[in-house]
Write a structure and sequence with these properties.
By secondary structure, this protein is α/β, with parallel strands linked by helices. The protein has a single domain, classed as 2,3-Dihydroxybiphenyl 1,2-Dioxygenase, domain 1, CATH 3.10.180. Helix content is 18%, strand content 35%. The chain contains two helices and seven strands. The protein has a seven-stranded mixed beta sheet with strand order 2-3-1-4-7-6-5. A hairpin with a 3-residue loop joins strand 5 (93-96) and strand 6. The longest helix is centred in the N-terminal third of the chain and has 12 residues, at 17-28. The radius of gyration is 15 Å and the shape is globular.
Length: 124
């Protein structure tokens, strides 16, 4: 049975994504191309990749209505999608980007959920 393995990230809308990312870099020491990132340890491979990503508008979050999106890590995206479909959950879309598999759905309150199966360690 496929399962959620952790939080992949939180995505939300801000007025100035670059200013927010700069604050995270300067104040918390967290940087990255898409926002603050916690990367894998090259030595142990134990630290999961997680990020907080800021967007200028809500295009990536749509059709979610909450102003943010939750990204959940899963161990088997394809199996998770099949399990959800069997429970009557509508899957909005899915994609295999090479570095990871993704699927999107809405929770009962209209919050967009992104499922993510990491297929390779992200580039540091």
């Amino acid at each position: 049975m496929a399962k959620v393995t952790g939080l992949g990230g939180v995505f939300y809308v801000v007025k100035d994504p670059e200013a927010t990312r700069q604050w995270y870099r300067e104040v918390l020491g967290l940087g990255g191309e898409y926002g603050p990132q916690l990367m894998w340890s090259e030595e142990t491979k134990e630290q999961p990749y997680s990020l907080v990503s800021h967007f200028k508008d809500d295009a990536y979050i749509k059709p979610g209505t909450g102003g943010f999106m939750i990204n959940l890590r899963v161990d088997d995206c394809d199996a998770m999608v099949e399990q959800l479909k069997a429970k009557g959950v509508a899957i909005l879309d899915s994609a295999d980007e090479g570095y990871g598999k993704f699927a999107w759905l809405l929770d009962p309150d209209g919050i967009k959920i992104e499922l993510w199966e990491q297929c390779a360690a992200p580039e540091a």
